[in-house]
Amino acid sequence: MKSTPSQAKGKTSSVGSHVRKTTPPQANELEFSLFGPGMGECVVVHLGSGEWMIVDSCINGETGRPIALDYLDLIGVDVAKQVKLVLITHWHDDHIRGVGEIVREAPNAKFGCSAAIRNEDFCSLVKMSKRIKLVSHMPGLAEFDDVLSTKTNGPDIWMDESKLVYVGGGVPPVKVHSLSPSAKTITNAVGNFATMMKGVKTQNRQPFPSVAPNDQSVVLLVETKDVHLLLGADLEHSAGPNTGWNAVIACGTRPKILSSGYKVAHHGSHNGDMPGIWTQLNHANPHALLTTYSRGRKPLPSDADVKRLKSQTNQAYCTVWPVTQRPKNRTPVDRTINQVVKNRQAVLKRPGHIRLRVPLAGKPNQIVVDLFNNAKKL
Amino acid sequence: MSLVKLTDALTKNKGTKFSVPSVLTIPHHGASVTVSNVGSGPSEPVTFLNGSVDFHLDANVLLDLLDRDFILPTPPVSDKIPQRSRSGSTSEGPKKEGNTLSHLEDLKMKAAPLIKLRGQEGPVRRFKVLQQFEGKVTEVYEDQTFRADLIDLTDKTSEQESAEFPMEEIHPSDRDLIAPGAIFYWIMGYETTPSDYKRVSEIRLRRSPQWSEYEIDSITSEGKDLFSRFTRQENDTSSGK
Known about the structure:
The structure holds two protein chains of two kinds.
Chain A: H1 17-22, E1 29-36, E2 42-48, E3 51-55, E4 59-60, E5 65-66, H2 67-74, H3 79-82, E6 83-87, H4 93-96, H5 99-105, E7 110-114, H6 120-130, H7 140-150, E8 157-159, E9 163-167, E10 175-178, H8 183-200, E11 220-223, E12 229-231, H9 244-250, E13 259-263, H10 275-280, E14 282-290, H11 303-312, E15 316-318, H12 334-340, E16 342-347, E17 352-359, E18 368-372, E19 376-377
Parallel strand pairs in A: 3-6, 6-7, 7-8, 12-13, 13-14, 14-15
Antiparallel strand pairs in A: 1-2, 1-17, 2-3, 4-5, 9-10, 10-11, 11-12, 15-19, 17-18
Helix pairs in contact in A: 5-7, 6-7, 6-8
Chain B: H1 3-12, E1 22-25, E2 32-38, E3 45-50, E4 53-58, H2 59-68, H3 103-111, E5 126-140, E6 145-152, E7 160-166, E8 183-193, E9 196-205, H4 213-230
């Protein structure tokens, strides 16, 4: 139930929460859903005509399944037939959990990932990760290997700065473009993975930390008639002109269109932000959606990050708020745990969910915002 | 009974949670191995009895072995343990003690970790476990603390946590191993002995051996094979450029 259009203000539906949550989008409606439990994120986009795209993956702690699959089941989507694209922006643990299961359940979907990992050393690292057996943790790279058990010839799409990834079947068709990584980033990645492989020979076997630079991350642009979405993944800006956000903005072959919906890069961090994102890639006052990163001494977004974000838009939304959540009480060992550790932070079992919907032929001021679970407007 | 045959039984039972006592029956042989004691956590030893010979495995090693189909090598000492022979044929029948190995199995044995013999570490400790976590180090700070993700092994439905640990909670000999990616197990409970009953909290780092040359070669070969599958023509049916 949409309210009358107003001037670029996020509107929420007046229909009850459960009904809103379980109602699928109409065939001619664009949907942009962002999920985040405090560590990890997943984007689900309806491209029109019942076609869906899933970008990255995290687990719904309540069910143990990828949140994308739980959500699509909830709204009655036939995942096997309707999911057309499964894309991974980069191989960090918190962006890849459960993607193997998604690929198995969506056999008709094309699988795409960053061209920066199309590399022999990376393949060796994947195989190495698979040999590391833990009781509960699963190395992120092993998840990638799980995908390859379905996609035996490898990814269908290698994404870089100038790829038209998908053209939807609707009228007008929705297009998905990848805007990164740059050629320079891909070259740098070869050296990075070679260094990691060399280091392996002197290390004990253990899961690889997610230390690769975030400049290998894939930024996506979803293009419709008038309302476009910029999905910033975890891309960070870098000093050089040919990597990170500098490269995206400077790229001569990217579509020169401005977005009205922006998945804020790298959890709203200072490293993932730069003025050009707001002035050259987005309309003024876009709907800005972000996930939190509640792990670490400096959870993201910080207060300064929120202040900076709100200086760019008054329509900023966060999947979990407050950023850090206290873990549940674990009697009878809570006292012992608290005597040993400090700064305990919980990853919520149920991810927060921010959802934007707008007619495919609609205008930015027709975007309707819904917030579910712990999601909040900043 | 040969150690090769014992490991066959172990691999066929992989994933099985051993209770005490449990008996593994060696297929095709009819011989039995009794699991006489199981530690309460992943770092506690699992003890097997084989006739008059008993030996134990660090459970971390056991996890690795069961998943990777490695064959246990002959322990370094003790004439009570059957010696393996390296002829070319495979032994059959329960009474034939000497085992023979294929070339591949021989290579695997070179890469496998060693078994510890009972008695070298003293009596097995008994715990009443209240809580277990598997931890993965994510950051190490300069102020002698580190942060780790914690997965609750006691209650799989429980939420994942992240917390900061002081380095002093780690045994001095393990502190150099604390680096992003390192795995540890944190067990809380009551330790029981015939004369004592006390509350304990222990963090045990998972010690894994370095990759062997054989493994590096094998992994590199698998990586090459995987990469070769990537070099097919890209499917650009969706591209308009």
